[in-house]
Write a structure and sequence with these properties.
- The protein is rod-shaped, with a radius of gyration of 48 Å.
- Among the domains are: about 130 residues, no CATH class; about 100 residues, no CATH class.
- It is built from 18 helices and no strands.
- The chain is mostly helical and about 425 residues long.
- Helix 4 runs antiparallel to helix 17, helix 9 runs antiparallel to helix 13 and helix 13 crosses helix 14.
């Protein structure tokens, strides 16, 4: 049953193959007609036997034999000629499993070679291709939505208690290695180089000033009580208030003296901090003591609770922000994608890193890919129906194979005629 032209994707190929088959068969029929006519014409008295007529008959006979032989060879590739169970026919359907394995090995071993893959990768500007994808508004918006929408799902997979506990546990472990002291020392030295330690000192001074002012009454009472304890009730009553006033004024004056940025005390503070940093870096005992102190602080239950609170706040912030299309997370992700696209297009170092990474990954996976590709091709070919595989292959190469029939018929005719002429010249009438 022939498929409708609009429903058969191979309709044109079928029609072309049929025309070439009919033409090749017609040529064999022509040789057969010439042969019959070559014998019938002298018998009917239309022409007389002679050298040229005999050579024509010999060539036509050979043309028929050559055409039929090549027809048999071509048909035997795809099916049994005339349905007869002749050995070594229907070769392709019978050997489709072996054909699939051979085809898979050929494609994997001869097409996907390391040299060929490197050549193709060298011709592909992968960074620019990725940059074009990220620059496309539709692709970029889809990526932004996908990334932002995945954040709540990621948070859902991390149970609240487990996540907060994990954060609380992992921070001390990350900072608790043998290299903690040098790492902290380098961080502190960077802060000192940028005068950040003076900002910390200024903050502490402000806190002390505020504390003195807000607790002045309590401090005055405490000093007076200490004077009475040490000098007696009478001495405390007489000079306790005066001593308290002088102590508080002296403390305030000292804080004012420290406050200017160029004060000698601040310079001394800088020298002291640098000295402590040097000790942390060079003195193993000091570094170990410092590490244990940091670990003690991070492991304290109040700090652990603080990490958990940070996690809860972070989660609520993320969940609220992703619901807003114009939220901060979406904006950050979009900006990051835009910067990444620009780097992929113009940053030579990044482009080279991408290409090197892709080349290393592909070449590392190439043996595995070739093996799987060969297996895949073999499985696909093996799964084909024998009739279907014969039809598919014949539609693809059948047209070219008909030229074998053309050539066999014409070459047979020429060789047959030439052989007759040579034998006649050598042996005369005995050559018949």
């Amino acid at each position: 049953m022939t498929s409708h032209p609009h429903q058969d994707a191979d309709f044109a190929a079928r029609q072309t193959l049929r025309r070439y088959k009919n033409a090749a068969t017609g040529l064999v029929g022509l040789m057969a007609g010439v042969t019959v006519l070559g014998y019938a014409a002298p018998a009917a008295g239309w022409v007389r036997d002679g050298f040229w007529l005999e050579m024509l008959r010999a060539g036509a006979r050979a043309g028929v034999v050559g055409g039929l032989a090549d027809w048999f060879a071509v048909v035997a590739l795809f099916r049994r000629p005339m349905g007869l169970p002749i050995p070594h026919t229907a070769i392709l359907p019978a050997q489709k499993d072996r054909l699939g394995r051979a085809l898979g090995r050929f494609v994997a071993g001869q097409v996907f070679t390391q040299k060929e893959v490197e050549r193709v990768l060298g011709q592909v500007d992968l960074p620019a291709f990725l940059a074009d994808m990220l620059d496309d508004p539709g692709t970029r918006d889809a990526l932004v939505k996908s990334i932002t929408r995945s954040l709540p799902q990621m948070l859902d997979r991390l149970e609240d208690g487990r996540a907060s506990n994990a954060v609380a546990r992992i921070m001390p472990k990350l900072l608790g290695g043998s290299n903690l002291a040098p790492i902290i020392a380098r961080a502190l030295r960077s802060l000192v180089d940028d005068d950040k330690h003076q900002e910390v000192l200024s903050f502490l001074l402000e806190q002390i000033k505020d504390a003195l002012q807000s607790k002045e009454g309590a401090l005055r009472q405490m000093i007076e009580e200490r004077v009475r304890e040490q000098g007696g009730r009478l001495l405390g009553w007489a000079i306790g208030g005066s001593i308290a006033t002088k102590v508080l004024l002296a403390a305030a004056k000292e804080l004012e003296r420290i406050d200017p940025q160029n004060s000698s005390i601040r310079e001394g503070f800088t020298s002291w901090v640098r000295g402590q940093i040097d000790r942390i870096e060079t003195d193993p005992e000091k570094g170990k003591e410092f590490s244990q102190t940091i670990m003690g602080v991070l492991s304290h239950e109040s700090v652990v609770g603080w990490w958990g609170d940070i996690w809860q706040r972070f989660r609520r912030m993320v969940e609220a922000d992703v619901e807003d299309p114009e939220g901060r997370i979406a904006s950050v992700v979009q900006d990051a994608l835009e910067r990444m696209a620009a780097q992929m297009r113009y940053d030579q170092n990044m482009r080279q890193r991408i290409m090197d990474s892709v080349n290393r990954t592909v070449l590392k996976m190439l043996p595995f890919m070739r093996e799987r590709m060969a297996e895949f091709i073999a499985r696909v070919v093996s799964s084909w129906n024998a009739v279907e595989i014969a039809e598919k292959l014949e539609l693809r190469v059948g047209k070219d194979l008909q030229f074998i029939r053309f050539n066999g018929t014409l070459v047979g005719f020429g060789v047959g005629a030439l052989l007759f002429a040579v034998l006649r010249l050598l042996f005369g009438l005995n050559a018949q």
